[in-house]
Write a structure and sequence with these properties.
The chain is about 15% helix and about 35% strand. The protein is an alpha+beta fold. The chain has one domain (about 35-189). The strands form two sheets. A six-stranded antiparallel sheet has the order 4-3-2-1-11-12, with no helix packed on it. A six-stranded mixed sheet has the order 5-6-7-10-9-8. The longest helix is centred in the N-terminal third of the chain and has 18 residues, at about 1-20. The protein starts with a helix and ends with a strand.
Length: about 190
């Protein structure tokens, strides 16, 4: 009986250890709907200022603002949340070295899918920060802000799709405010 209880406790302990895996890697064959690929860089000029987002391997991202760079590994979403099956980082604790008062990032990257351009524009206009974001005719959208009181950098990168395709024209776009350098082709878009 004593040997049987030890076996049962061992199985429970192993189960608890494996359920506490904090690697934040997808545990299924789920494909996350990301915007950026390894080596890609986005420079966005918003009312907040200029920021550069650079993708590393997998979910690694670097953010450069105010002359300094901070990095993080995004957590892939395991199920769709607010339309997104991308990745995020909730900014636990003060995980960055201080950059002009900012010590943490609350970050989001993913795709948003709509049937029409009008639905996409309605979604953008419904965002509380819609006047602070910039987007291009091809649906690439960036929003960011510093919140010094919370010591936080909030940032979202979205790729909008319309009927399964990147759009070609979106009213209110500011194509000149977002530049992309894609590493695979070495092209600036």
């Amino acid at each position: 009986m004593k040997h049987h209880l030890i076996c049962v406790y061992s199985v429970i302990l192993v189960g608890l250890i494996t359920s506490c895996d904090e690697s934040h890697e997808p545990k299924t064959d789920l494909t996350n709907e990301m915007v950026m690929t390894n080596g890609m860089s986005i420079t966005a000029k918003t009312p907040e200022g200029t920021i550069v987002i650079t993708a590393g391997p997998g979910f690694e991202r670097s953010y450069t603002w105010d002359g300094e760079t901070r990095s993080v590994k995004l957590w892939p979403r395991l199920e769709r949340w607010n339309g997104s099956l991308g990745a995020y980082y909730p900014g636990p604790g003060e995980h960055w070295r201080n950059n002009h008062g900012i010590t943490r990032g609350v970050l989001e990257e993913g795709q948003q899918h709509f049937e029409t351009v009008e639905e996409a524009i309605k979604w953008i206009n419904g965002l509380s920060y819609h006047t602070e974001c910039v987007y291009r005719d091809d649906g690439l959208m960036v929003w960011w802000r510093r919140t010094p009181a919370a010591r936080t950098l909030d940032l979202e990168v979205w790729q909008i799709y319309v009927a399964g395709q990147k759009p070609t024209k979106m009213g209110g776009s500011e194509n000149n405010k977002i530049n992309v350098i894609a590493s695979s082709a070495g092209l600036i878009r």
